[in-house]
Amino acid sequence: MTLNGKTALITGSTSGIGLGIAHGLAAAGANVILNGFGDAQALLADFARHGVKVGHHGANVSHPSEIEAMFAYAAAEFGGVDILVNNAGIQHVAAVEDFPVERWDAIIAINLSAVFHATRLALPGMRQRDWGRIVNIASVHGLVGSTGKAAYVAAKHGVIGLTKVVGLETAKTGVTCNAICPGWVLTPLVQQQIDDRAAKGVDPQQARQDLLAEKQPSLEFVTPEQLGELVLFLCGEGGSQVRGAAWNMDGGWLAQ
């Protein structure tokens, strides 16, 4: 498939899942706007191999005003956003009664509210062009719960609810909105959980396998590249009637 002439904005795309998805979209011909922290110049140089226009905006998506500035940049430099991938996310693990209020607020702001703000800003242009793709990177934790992850689970459940509403509101248009729900992906967030286990005296490789064995029957991590392939499908004609879906890619997690 080709996405020549389309522009994709991927939040949280300087590492992990977002970076893998961004590379997949660029390889398919889409111009790409990266978002996040880190060495932006090195990333832009790396994307040059795709032969597409690439930009970077460092918006902190916990602040609506910075999301608005990012969309203004997209309009001025790229003519708007055709494909929005809401990927940025953070995590904190603690029991509800011990959960720091500021961490709750930060997770809701980045993992849920930012999805709303980016979506509301993307929709007018997509409706005007009668074509658009919104892909929300939710989580299997948008469909099931786990102890210690109250804010993350609440936010991801909210993302799936928002996805359904936008899918319904755009059902008679050329715009689609769907959520992808990964299981364990070896991102910095998940690596931190492995490191926390290893810090308690568990062999790092054993900590990795134990984490997978608790939830993911395949005993393999989902890769950012695999998630990127699913995003490409949703962006293509084959995905044009997938609307408001929560599509899990989880190594069998939810099949149990």
From TrEMBL:
GO biological process: monocarboxylic acid metabolic process
InterPro entries hit by this protein: 3-OHbutyrate_DH (IPR011294), NAD(P)-bd_dom_sf (IPR036291), Sc_DH/Rdtase_CS (IPR020904), SDR (IPR050259), SDR_fam (IPR002347)
UniProt superkingdom: Bacteria
Cross-referenced PROSITE patterns: ADH_SHORT
Alphabetized GO MF terms: 3-hydroxybutyrate dehydrogenase activity
Database matches in Pfam families: adh_short
Family under the similarity heading: Belongs to the short-chain dehydrogenases/reductases (SDR) family.
This protein's name: 3-hydroxybutyrate dehydrogenase
Organism: Pseudomonas eucalypticola
Lineage of the organism: Bacteria, Pseudomonadati, Pseudomonadota, Gammaproteobacteria, Pseudomonadales
